[in-house]
């Protein structure tokens, strides 16, 4: 069976101030063409179909167009909700839509109920695990700790239990939206940290033939059977080195996997340039970036006059301007942001405690701080669901 694995469409999202709806429509057209021309038997979309719980009307219309075009091809599609989606809104009409071959899996209770598709070698069971917010689903799974690994492991137990009841030789595919250990994050994914740990081990997916992952925006191979497709379009300059693509996966009769990357059309390349303004304007080596979307970091010790206007004369698609003056490490004016770079909320809070009272928090106080951060994230998740 030939499967096209994609995720993280984020319909309705902009790239800085650039409306990406046209590029997203172009991707949908590319997806449909790939399905038709490459003999795809099933499409899987591993979450974050929309960029927010209440998407703009234009994004809903594009999603509706995508559903109709996929249904017209007669190729089954399985979709799950991600942490940016409202599971309830995305799942409206799932029963009716399923009759057209578009299978929306947004309910936690359906984790162990597969979409069964067949090829000449027998059945393939597709299990859709929507994004599982630990604080909201722990009771449904009967786990003691509201942690990503615990709830995802419980969901996979249901998958394996159902798979054990299927005829011998039944192959299996799991769709999941999670941060798996070994994956490389970017700046455009929403934080899903709970209990200080967001990542789950790839071994959680043992027992299935292929795990089609969403959430991280870079296409990645965690293991041969556990992969991220990545987002089809860039949504932050941290993705400048990404190759935007989908996975074309051939699932053999014996459960073997062969995977090929299919490139996605990107409106413009991304470029990150850095240096003093005058050097950036004069450097001939930067000519290749003149038609790219540009993030420019200026290192001038004194902020130059009208930097954006001057940059856009050479780089007309400059979207982001960052000031990072080069100073000696001991300079007291070294930016606060630089000192905090790469540090978690928990670490910043602990450093603040140490600064105020002269000693960092003990283990009990660290736990109190972590519980407070988890409570805030859980409250945000509840508000997202309620919207």
UniProtKB/TrEMBL annotation:
Matches recorded under Pfam families: Metallophos, SbcD_C
Q: Looking at the keywords, is Amino-acid biosynthesis present?
A: no
MF-aspect GO terms:
3'-5' exonuclease activity; endonuclease activity
Q: Where is the Calcineurin-like phosphoesterase domain?
A: 1-217
Q: Name one GO biological process term.
A: DNA replication
Give all residue intervals belonging to the Nuclease SbcCD subunit D C-terminal domain: 267-355
What keywords appear on the UniProt entry? DNA recombination, DNA replication, Endonuclease, Exonuclease, Hydrolase, Nuclease
Q: Briefly, what is this protein's role?
A: SbcCD cleaves DNA hairpin structures. These structures can inhibit DNA replication and are intermediates in certain DNA recombination reactions. The complex acts as a 3'->5' double strand exonuclease that can open hairpins. It also has a 5' single-strand endonuclease activity.
In terms of PANTHER family, this protein maps to: COMPONENT OF ATP-DEPENDENT DSDNA EXONUCLEASE, NUCLEASE SBCCD SUBUNIT D
Membership in a protein family: Belongs to the SbcD family.
Subunit structure as annotated in this protein's UniProt entry: Heterodimer of SbcC and SbcD.
What is the recorded name of this protein? Nuclease SbcCD subunit D
Annotated source species? Streptomyces avermitilis
Instruction: Give me the gene this protein comes from.
Output: sbcD
């Amino acid at each position: 069976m030939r499967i096209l694995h994609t995720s993280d469409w984020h319909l309705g999202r902009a790239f800085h101030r650039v409306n990406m709806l046209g590029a997203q429509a172009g991707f949908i057209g590319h997806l449909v063409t790939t399905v038709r021309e490459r003999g795809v038997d099933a499409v899987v979309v591993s979450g974050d179909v929309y960029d927010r719980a209440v998407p703009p009307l234009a994004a809903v219309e594009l999603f509706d167009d995508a559903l109709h075009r996929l249904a017209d091809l007669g190729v089954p599609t399985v979709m799950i909700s991600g942490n940016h989606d409202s599971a309830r809104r995305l799942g409206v009409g799932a029963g009716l839509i399923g009759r057209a071959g578009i299978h929306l899996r947004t309910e936690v209770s359906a984790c162990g109920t597969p979409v069964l598709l067949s090829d000449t070698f027998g059945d393939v069971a597709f299990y859709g695990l929507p994004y599982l917010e630990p604080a909201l689903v722990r009771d449904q799974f009967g786990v003691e700790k509201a942690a990503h690994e615990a709830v995802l492991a419980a969901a996979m137990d249901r998958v394996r239990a159902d798979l054990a009841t299927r005829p011998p030789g039944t192959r299996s595919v799991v769709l999941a939206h999670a941060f798996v250990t070994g994956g490389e994050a970017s700046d455009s994914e929403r934080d899903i940290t709970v209990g200080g740990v967001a990542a789950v081990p790839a071994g959680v997916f043992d027992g299935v033939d292929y795990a089609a992952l969403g959430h991280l925006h870079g296409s990645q191979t965690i293991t041969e059977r556990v992969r991220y497709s990545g987002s089809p379009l860039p949504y932050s300059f941290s993705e400048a080195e990404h190759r935007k693509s989908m996975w074309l996966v051939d699932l053999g009769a014996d459960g073997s996997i062969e995977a090929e990357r299919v490139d996605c059309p990107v409106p413009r390349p991304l470029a990150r340039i850095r240096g003093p303004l005058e050097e950036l304007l004069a450097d001939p080596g930067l000519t290749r970036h003149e038609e790219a979307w540009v993030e420019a970091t200026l290192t001038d010790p004194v902020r130059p006059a009208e930097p954006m206007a001057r940059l856009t004369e050479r780089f007309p698609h400059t979207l982001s301007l960052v000031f990072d003056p080069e100073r000696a490490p001991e300079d007291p004016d070294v930016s606060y942001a630089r000192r905090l770079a790469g540090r978690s909320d928990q670490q910043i809070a602990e450093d603040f405690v140490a600064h105020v009272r002269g000693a960092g928090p003990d283990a009990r106080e660290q736990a109190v701080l972590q519980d407070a951060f988890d409570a805030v994230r859980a409250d945000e998740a509840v508000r997202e669901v309620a919207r």
